[in-house]
Design a protein that fits this description.
Elements: E1 2-6, H1 10-21, E2 25-29, H2 33-40, H3 51-58, E3 63-64, H4 69-74, E4 78-81, H5 96-105, E5 115-119, H6 127-138, E6 147-151, H7 161-166, E7 171-175, H8 178-187, E8 195-198, H9 200-231, H10 236-243, H11 271-284, H12 290-313, E9 321-324, H13 339-349, E10 355-358, H14 363-369, E11 376-377, H15 381-387, E12 390-393, H16 403-406, E13 412-414
Parallel strand pairs: 1-2, 1-4, 2-3, 4-5, 5-6, 7-8, 9-10, 9-12, 10-11, 12-13
Antiparallel strand pairs: 6-7
Bound molecules: nicotinamide-adenine-dinucleotide.
Nicotinamide-adenine-dinucleotide binds next to α1 and α5.
Length: 419
């Protein structure tokens, strides 16, 4: 089997290495030259435990990142799209990277064989059927001849990418023809988990069922934390931990329970854009989702709610606010849509600019993406604590658990309910 895969980010690189590790020949295509050359040199462009060892085993053997697109696609049984699908107009998913990769693919598809074009990027339900297929046909190509079309959503969590992909709990294949299904089932024949074949729209919908449920659990928890904070004298973290002892979560409390826990709002690349994209798609088709709208509204309001809690602890704007954590979650250097940046923006708006930040991994990423924020950085946790008057846990890195001892005499806002 031969696969070409466009986009070597968290999803694409992990998928490429996992396929290559099973003996499938994988050609990786990446437009970001810095990212491509980092991978070509055998290094990871981001922090992901386990993925580096897989890259060592496969690079140059079954995984190649220096083969021209035309050659790679012409030899492939499947072409995977793992490109970004960021916020577009009115919250809709921006499909321009997907269309760009399809444009590069079509002229190179072998006329004699059969190639399945598979969207692994997260795209709202009906995208493959109502947008991708018409897009391909508008370019003069026929879906159903030498070209098949499918989707294969990805459920990995950043920080656990490798483990989540190689030990997937389910594989979802959105397909509309037997030949595409056969190719995709063959790719996943080494997997022991259930491999489900569903319609194109269902495949995409399952991914959004998952992400919108997670987002809703988080927003519900955050709203409840604000209710508790408003009433006062409520041990919020303790209350949620006791909630998790309900045996209906499973014993010990299942991983899903970790989403029913308050924090600073959901961030990262997926939940913010995916909740907005499904909301926008449904609204555009005539039904405005009410709960989903509130999930988004609660999340959007969290950074300024946390900023107000911080401001209650600061006696004057001259005092230094120290943020422990900048990535959107622990064990990751991803700062896309990170609550820490939104909290700083809210504090800046309220006139607070004496802000310092520290993170075990994410300072370079954060500095690159949020240069407009008024704040400084400390290279160590100890320095941050020593230089700050008020400390805020903005990312639940385990190493911040000793903050009460380290900063014994200083006010602490535990925005992640870590303590
Ligand atoms: N990050 C996650 O946790 C996660 C989980 C499940 C699904 N997803 C979805 O998977 C998709 C990718 O997410 P990601 O986090 O891996 O994104 P990413 O930004 O890390 O990677 C996307 C890559 O695609 C590259 N790219 C764009 N156009 C290209 C082209 N024409 N040819 C080659 N490369 C191209 C970009 O340079 C980038 O490196 C998104 O739709 C996302 O919603 C992400």
């Amino acid at each position: 089997m031969v696969v070409t895969l466009f986009g070597l980010g968290f999803v694409g690189l992990t998928t490429a290495v996992a396929f290559a590790d099973m003996g499938i020949t994988v050609y990786g295509i990446e437009v970001n030259e810095k990212r491509r050359s980092t991978i070509a040199a055998g290094k990871l462009p981001f922090h992901e435990p386990g993925l580096g060892e897989g890259l060592d085993r496969t690079l140059g053997k079954t995984f190649f990142v220096d083969v021209p697109v035309e050659e790679a696609v012409s030899k492939s049984d499947a072409v995977y799209y793992c490109v970004g699908t960021p916020y577009g107009k009115d919250g809709q998913a921006d499909l321009s990277y997907l269309y760009g990769a399809i444009d590069q693919t079509l002229p190179a598809v072998s006329k004699d064989g059969f190639t399945v074009l598979v969207t692994k990027s997260t795209v709202p339900p009906s995208t493959t059927k109502d947008m991708v297929i018409p897009y391909i046909e508008k370019q003069g190509y026929t879906v159903g001849g030498n070209i098949g079309v499918a989707n294969n959503p990805e459920f990995l969590r950043e920080g656990h990418c490798w483990d989540d992909v190689v030990n997937a709990d389910r594989i979802v294949l959105g397909v509309s023809d037997e030949r595409s299904e056969k190719v995709l089932r063959k790719l996943y024949q080494g997997y022991t988990c259930p491999v489900h074949t569903v319609t194109l729209n269902t495949g995409e919908y399952i991914k959004y069922l998952s992400n919108t449920l997670l987002a809703t659990l988080i927003s519900w928890s955050n709203e409840m934390s604000l209710v508790a904070d408003n009433i006062g004298d409520i041990q919020i973290a303790e209350a949620f931990r006791i909630l998790h002892e309900d045996s209906r979560w499973g014993t010990p409390a299942c991983n899903m329970a970790t989403y029913a826990y308050p924090g600073a709002g959901y961030g990262g690349y997926c939940l913010p854009k995916d909740t907005n994209a499904l909301f926008a798609r449904s609204k555009a088709l005539g039904y405005e989702p009410k709960m989903l709208g509130q999930t988004i509204a609660v999340n959007d309001a969290m950074p300024s709610a946390i900023a107000k809690i911080i401001e209650r602890k600061v006696s004057s704007p001259e005092q230094v606010i120290g943020l422990c954590g900048l990535s959107f979650k622990p064990e990751s250097d991803d700062t896309r849509d990170t609550p820490a940046a939104k909290i700083v923006a809210a504090l800046n708006k309220d006139g607070y600019t004496n802000i310092l930040g520290y993170d075990p991994l994410a300072i370079p990423e954060f500095k690159q993406y949020y240069a407009q924020l008024k704040m400084g950085f400390k290279e160590s946790y100890d320095e941050l604590v020593a230089s700050s008057d008020v400390l805020v846990i903005t990312t639940a890195w385990k190493e911040f658990s000793d903050l009460p001892e380290k900063a014994a005499d200083k006010p602490i806002v535990d925005a992640r309910y870590l303590l």
